[in-house]
TrEMBL record:
Species the sequence originates in: freshwater metagenome
Record-annotated GST N-terminal domain positions: 6-86
Coiled-coil boundaries: none
Name of this chain's protein: Unannotated protein
Length: 246
């Protein structure tokens, strides 16, 4: 059901996990919104113009004239705007806030770094992230340029990628623990489910990570809350021995 209310505009980059988080929250709350897909590379110009010179990343949300920037701030503001269903259920609100902020840290970083890192080894797979098939040779030439540019932008190196992979087991253990204590993974979807679920769903676009992630709480939440999620870098892309054993 759509609840009438203020004019809401969401600025996103399509593959961004925190943008998926915010969009899912808007839908959960039944709030009508317009989504603006920004063009990578030109997004900073728009973000600076709309949200201010220090707010260059997505997501951003306009609520009438009010400018809200960053996924955590946006979810908190949406909770004030439309309290039901609660993103921070009172009985576990503190734990949910803490888990949401934790999810907005290293996990979210890895959800950007690991797919882009893996794409270096299978650039033709970039085509699947737009919902299509693997790219042909000319498309792969273009993808290689895009992936190189993204590595540079994010400061990605083989060592950064390797180190990120080594951080994953402890992060996935923490997600299991959050599910075990009932902070995430229940039928009542909360802010931490959305923040963590979107990042894990993005990690599932890397086939080499499936043995680490599948069958665990994070994968269940991710696939339940974000069923439509294009993109797959097939297993076997990353160099042997880089993905830690489960
Ligand atoms: N932790 C912030 C992350 C914002 C962020 O880094 N967004 C990325 C997309 S996932 C972005 O805007 N990248 C483009 C850029 O850094 O210019 C949030 O959750 O809002």
């Amino acid at each position: 059901m759509t609840v009438p209310g203020p004019a809401i505009t969401l600025h996103v980059l399509p593959p961004s996990p925190p943008c998926r988080t915010v969009e899912a929250a808007l839908q959960l709350k039944g709030l009508a919104y317009e989504k603006i897909d920004l063009t990578p590379g030109r997004h900073q110009e728009v973000m600076a113009e709309v949200y201010g010179p220090d707010r260059l990343t997505v997501p951003g949300l306009l609520i009438d004239e009010e400018r809200v920037h960053g996924s955590v701030a946006i979810l908190e503001r949406l909770e004030e705007l439309q309290p039901e269903p609660a993103l921070y259920p009172p009985a576990i609100a503190e734990a949910v806030h803490e888990a949401e902020r934790w999810g907005d840290g290293r996990l979210q970083d890895l959800s950007r770094l690991l797919p882009w890192g893996s794409l270096h080894f299978r650039p033709e797979s970039l085509g699947t992230f737009g919902g299509g098939t693997a790219l042909d040779a000319a498309g792969t030439d273009f993808a290689i340029k895009v992936i190189r540019g993204t590595w540079k932008y994010h400061g990605l190196t083989a060592q950064v990628l390797y180190d990120g992979l080594q951080d994953l087991p402890a992060i996935l253990d923490r997600i299991d623990a959050l599910a075990q204590d009932g902070t995430i993974g229940t039928d009542h979807v909360n802010a931490a489910d959305l923040q963590i679920g979107a990042s894990v769903r993005t990690l599932l676009t890397v086939g080499d990570l499936h043995p680490l992630i599948e069958g665990r709480a994070g994968a269940e939440i991710a696939r339940r809350l974000f069923p439509e999620y294009p993109g797959l870098v097939p297993a076997g892309a990353l160099p042997e021995g880089w993905v830690p054993a489960r």
